[in-house]
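re: the backbone from monday

yeah here it is again, tokenized this time
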């Protein structure tokens, strides 16, 4: 939930920063292993002292893209980068072992939106420690652990933005309030199974009378290849139902929404990493790809002033990205990513006071276009605590065909935990 930053929250943030531990010996940026391993339930030093961190993101963007409109896909809240100088997402995190049974994590995101400073609780959860038998339980709010990119925080992405398939199918990232159970099998080959139950209020869910609107299942396996390679393969399934899912942005005197709907999303992901003798500090290579397919149905409703119409909706959408990153010497890395989307949606039995052609065009759900984007980046990391990135992307959605240049810095203050594989 987005909240306007108040003087009380600003004061609280100031007090927390006063006690922030700026020890560079226990920090990280970009997923490199460090002493503070909050993600696996271990905090460096005194286990009962919280690890506190602040991530700063500044950027200059040169683009003519005002809105991230993707033909064939309902707007879910993902936005294009704002033109000119500005701040990205500032992230404030606290994590600690609460006792020998429970670990806690909290992340607050601060960003500018439409000229206002807003805060959002991105993650706030507790997780079990030492249950045994490979079982871990979690409760609260978090980025779902489906796929690969979804659980990665914005400042640790390999590019300055998420891939198009996440923007189109998940509204940026799948998140929610709920419970999770994970199990790691006692086998030589890594094998993990997980299930999550969420309230389902967030896209691709929506308003619902059900307490559990979204459920996810994921399976991951992986292992080593020789002395320098490692791989991981995963499959994910997301099921959600909603009473109403409106467009994230609505025009004045016009509203569009899907109602009484169900959506099923199936995904696969693959990651391969290589470095000489397993040491990534000098040279390393990373290849990532994810593919998702969403099948959904429901009713479409459009209102324009005093006029309105409804239709039966059946949607079939797919999307994927593939990206490769290579660090050729310490600190210097280059990356290339290809995103592509496609949809095959139908609107039938249109009835009401709005012409059928106007209804179909305004909905934006029926399109022959296949949005795609190609992105190239070069980044330099003087240390584990800072990164400077130059990124170029070319976006073609049919309606939009434009270039975007991003010059970005990312810095980490305080102890930030290591990230997932």
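seq for it, each position gets an aa:
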């Amino acid at each position: 939930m987005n909240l306007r930053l108040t003087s009380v929250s600003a004061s609280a943030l100031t007090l927390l920063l006063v006690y922030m531990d700026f020890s560079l010996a226990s920090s990280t940026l970009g997923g490199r292993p460090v002493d503070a391993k909050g993600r696996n339930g271990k905090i460096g030093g005194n286990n009962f002292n919280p690890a506190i961190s602040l991530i700063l993101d500044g950027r200059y963007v040169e683009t003519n893209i005002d809105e991230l409109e993707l033909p064939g896909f309902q707007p879910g809240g993902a936005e294009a980068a704002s033109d000119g100088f500005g701040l990205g997402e500032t992230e404030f995190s606290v994590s600690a072992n609460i006792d020998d049974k429970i670990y806690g994590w909290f992340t607050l995101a601060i960003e500018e939106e439409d000229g206002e400073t807003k805060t959002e609780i991105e993650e706030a959860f507790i997780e079990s420690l030492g249950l045994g038998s490979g079982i871990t339980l979690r409760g609260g709010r978090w980025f779902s652990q489906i796929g690969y990119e979804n659980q990665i925080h914005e400042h640790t992405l390999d590019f300055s933005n998420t891939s198009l398939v996440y923007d189109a199918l998940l509204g940026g990232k799948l998140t929610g309030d709920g419970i999770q159970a994970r199990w790691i099998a006692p086998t030589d080959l890594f094998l993990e199974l997980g299930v999550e139950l969420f309230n389902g209020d967030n896209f691709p869910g929506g308003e619902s009378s059900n307490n559990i609107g979204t459920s996810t299942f994921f399976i991951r396996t992986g292992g080593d290849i020789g002395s320098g390679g490692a791989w991981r393969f995963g499959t994910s399934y997301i099921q959600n139902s909603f009473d109403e899912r409106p467009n994230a942005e609505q025009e004045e005197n016009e509203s569009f929404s899907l109602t009484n709907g169900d959506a099923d999303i199936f995904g696969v992901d693959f990651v391969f990493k290589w470095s000489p003798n397993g040491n990534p500090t000098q040279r390393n290579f990373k290849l990532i790809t994810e593919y998702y397919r969403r099948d959904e149905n429901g009713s479409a409703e459009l209102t324009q002033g005093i006029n309105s119409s409804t239709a039966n909706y059946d949607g079939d959408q797919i999307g994927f990205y593939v990206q490769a990153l290579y660090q050729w010497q310490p600190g210097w890395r280059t990356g290339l990513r290809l995103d592509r989307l496609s949809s095959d949606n139908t609107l039938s039995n249109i009835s009401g006071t709005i012409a059928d052609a106007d209804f179909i065009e305004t909905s934006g759900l029926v399109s022959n276009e296949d949005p795609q984007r190609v992105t190239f980046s070069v980044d330099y990391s003087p240390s584990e605590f800072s990164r400077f990135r130059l990124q170029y992307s070319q976006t073609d959605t049919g309606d939009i065909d434009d270039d975007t240049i991003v010059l970005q810095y990312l810095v980490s203050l305080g102890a930030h935990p290591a990230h997932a594989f």
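The first strand starts at residue 2 and ends at 4. Residues 1-46 have pLDDT under 50 and may be disordered.
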